[in-house]
Amino acid sequence: MPKSQERCQEIREETRNLIIRKSILYFARNGFAGTKISDLSKHIGIAQGTIYIYFKSKEDLYAEIFAISDKIASNDKLSMLAELPLPAGQKIKKMSDYLIKSLKDENFAAGIALYTQRLLEGEADQSFYGTTEKIIKQGQKEGSVVSGNSRKLSEFYWGVVYLYAVKSLYTSDVVMITSDDLSRILLED
Amino acid sequence: MPKSQERCQEIREETRNLIIRKSILYFARNGFAGTKISDLSKHIGIAQGTIYIYFKSKEDLYAEIFAISDKIASNDKLSMLAELPLPAGQKIKKMSDYLIKSLKDENFAAGIALYTQRLLEGEADQSFYGTTEKIIKQGQKEGSVVSGNSRKLSEFYWGVVYLYAVKSLYTSDVVMITSDDLSRILLED
Amino acid sequence: MPKSQERCQEIREETRNLIIRKSILYFARNGFAGTKISDLSKHIGIAQGTIYIYFKSKEDLYAEIFAISDKIASNDKLSMLAELPLPAGQKIKKMSDYLIKSLKDENFAAGIALYTQRLLEGEADQSFYGTTEKIIKQGQKEGSVVSGNSRKLSEFYWGVVYLYAVKSLYTSDVVMITSDDLSRILLED
Amino acid sequence: MPKSQERCQEIREETRNLIIRKSILYFARNGFAGTKISDLSKHIGIAQGTIYIYFKSKEDLYAEIFAISDKIASNDKLSMLAELPLPAGQKIKKMSDYLIKSLKDENFAAGIALYTQRLLEGEADQSFYGTTEKIIKQGQKEGSVVSGNSRKLSEFYWGVVYLYAVKSLYTSDVVMITSDDLSRILLED
DNA sequence: CATGAATGAGTATTCATTCAT
DNA sequence: TATGAATGAATACTCATTCAT
User: Fold this and answer.
1) Which nucleotide in the DNA or RNA is closest to residue C55, CA to C1'?
2) pLDDT for D143-152, tens place per residue?
3) Confidence band of C189 (pLDDT split at 50, 70, 90)
4) How far is D160 from chain C (nearest CA, A)?
5) Which of A1, A53, C69, C176 could pair with C111 in a Cys bridge, judged by C-beta atoms 3.0 to 4.6 Å apart?
């Protein structure tokens, strides 16, 4: 008896997700060139061939991983946060809280790491910083944020987030900075 | 004949240095796995075979590069700075001045990037932070440095240096932070 | 129950025949190495696994296909024709008529193509030409067939049949030669 | 001391030609799918990697082989022959002479086989038959060529050439037809 | 029986390394 | 020494075959 159409679809979805989920970390840690399909498949716990059922090539899988990192990085929560009727200082504290907490999730950290990596290589667009810049400008008007070019401050802030994302990918017991340390990059004392 | 002997030695030295100098950047940008000897040799402007006259293997060359990055990172100037009879605040400002200035040199940036990368991967020892920690502790006694675990602060400070080292490897026109921005990570306002 | 037993057997037979019928053409067109089970099964309209219920392996299926092509090529009608009390000229015309007509059937064409292919590769025995040679020799005695080595003429004749078998496998609208054209290879004008 | 520019060029040319020359036969005999790069390289007498220095992929090499087969098939000698002020009957005899003689050269045979194969698959254009058709029409006017559609006759004639090209690829001791046998396809007795 | 997702041996392709010139 | 063509081990990718459903 043939498997039901839906069950098949389900299995496919599951396997595809499994591959993506497990690959994010692997690629984030080892990079594209440093990732062997043989090792990756072992790490995922499937046969090499299975990867090629779901992805045309190693590059294709990598691209998919990147698309995911986009979603992780350009998080909705942050965009919504910017729109709330709050003083910038509080927005920054909330954002920092959220980010420091999220970095404990390896997939979030990997997403941030991959996305920033791509940003550095000039392959992702920088509109990503827009939300943060808006908050910074608001804060500068309100007097709670240090003076300086908002793009530069934004890059600095997210650079530090990236830094700790990368750190947490390599070491399980990172001495993580606190939400306050992170906020302090932007906030006037 | 002795003259030509020397000249030969000189040429050897020159080529060897050329390879090392050009490789630092290439490895820093692309990583070990991402660097192909064929590309690297093209980038240096020599034949593939020539690299193997001076280095036993790709790994051998990489190790050499790392030794260089060690020297760059554990700079004598900084150790000396720590010993000077100055208030910690000034030491930090001088160190930041020096680092921000040095980052303009691509080889310095590459050295910092490679060294930190290795640190992250747990392959370089962390004694490197010692000097900075000393200054931080001094500053905390003097009241000029923010409170907090000195290792954590030190890692944060160097993390940001790493961040801008990496940025400058990828983009020629980085919006670099100022020496003051960097110092502010450690200094009480 | 016995009824359903038979019905089962019947279904089995049907599926098995379907696979064979559809495979002949596929193999004839693409060759053994050029035929992927995944493509073939799609072409047949069944799942890949189903093929392995009826055939132990790809080679096994190919062998079966060959057995069929044997039967097609060493057709009984032709052997009987040779035995009839007719002048060779008429036998050749009848044979040509039959062959040209049969080539319109794709399975016949595929059978001829596969069989001759195997003959070329030295994997089928050449006794196959025997019947035709006999007729040729008879015709040469009777003066209706051109002079020359009977094996050579026979190979020529069947070569042309093969040629048009192959042509009809690739193009649906072959400019087919007539039965007379074919006969003329052997017949004195 | 570096190898001289010209010598390098020469070596490259030689190796490239070696690969092409040896591949023609291999592909003609085994087809694209039936040819393994590992076997082919062994047959050529070089390392697998060497093939990829000269050709981007197996397909690329195959395409090159096909380009060569084009040149072999659309031979200049035949076009010139058509233009000569000779009766068609003589042209056909000369053409047949030339073809039967040339088929003894394995590369010529392979070229014809590959080209015709591509023609069958509809991937080569049929302008190729033009020259022969012209001669046929001339001959029909002159009364030396059998009546019938010139394209059909042309295809028949070249089909037989293909047939013996293929035969000679598989067997070293083919019972080859004579130039007269070949001509007789077109010539009135 | 039939299905098609999963497997892994087999094949294509890349790339660090060697070596004749 | 320096070169770059050649090598073959390592890696990416395919496809005949299996097996849980």
Assistant:
1) F17
2) 999 999 999 9
3) confident
4) 7
5) C69
Residues B123 and B165 in one domain: yes
| Contact call for A171 and B122, based on CB within 8 A | yes
Nucleotides of E under 7 A from a protein CB: 1-21
Residues B47 and B20 in one domain: yes
Percent of chain D with pLDDT over 90: 76
Where is C70: in which H helix or E strand?
A: helix C58-73
Domain count, chain A: 2
The reply to whether B27 falls in a domain is: yes
Identify which of A32, A160, A167 has the shortest CB distance to residue B160: A160
- Cβ–Cβ of D160/C162 closer than 8 Å? no
In a domain, C189, yes or no: no
Q: Closest nucleotide (CA of D54 to C1')?
A: F5
Nearest CA to C182 out of C68, C110, C99 is that of C99
Q: What is the CATH number of the domain that holds D42?
A: 1.10.10.60
Q: Which residue type occupies D137?
A: K
The closest CB to that of B149, out of A32, A175, A188, belongs to A175
B151-164 pLDDT, tens per residue? Answer: 999 999 999 999 99
* C75, C157 contact by CB (below 8 A): no
Question: CA B176, C1' F11: Å apart?
Answer: 40
Q: Check if residue B59 sits with its Cβ under 7 angstroms from strand E.
A: yes
Query: For residue D3, what pLDDT band results from cuts at 50, 70 and 90?
Result: low
Residues 160-179 of D with CB under 8 A from C: 160, 162-164, 166-167, 170-171, 175, 177
Whether residue D89 is found in the same domain as residue D39: no
Distance CA C97, CA C77 (A): 12
Give per-residue pLDDT as tens, B54-105. Answer: 999 999 999 999 999 888 887 788 889 999 999 999 999 999 999 999 999 9
CB A28 within 8 A of CB A110: yes
Q: Do residues B30 and B20 make contact, with C-beta atoms less than 8 angstroms apart?
A: no
Tokens representing B87 are 């208030």
Q: Are residues B93 and B180 in the same domain?
A: yes
Confirm or reject contact between B151 and chain A (CB < 8 A).
yes
Rg of the Cα atoms in chain A: 19
* Greatest alpha-carbon span in chain C: 66
Listed as ranges, the nucleotides of chain F within 7 A of a protein C-beta are 1-21
Tokens of B33: 């796995």
At C128 the pLDDT is: 79
Structural domain of D38: 5-66
Same domain, C87 and C175: yes
Is-contact D159 D110, C-beta < 8 A? no
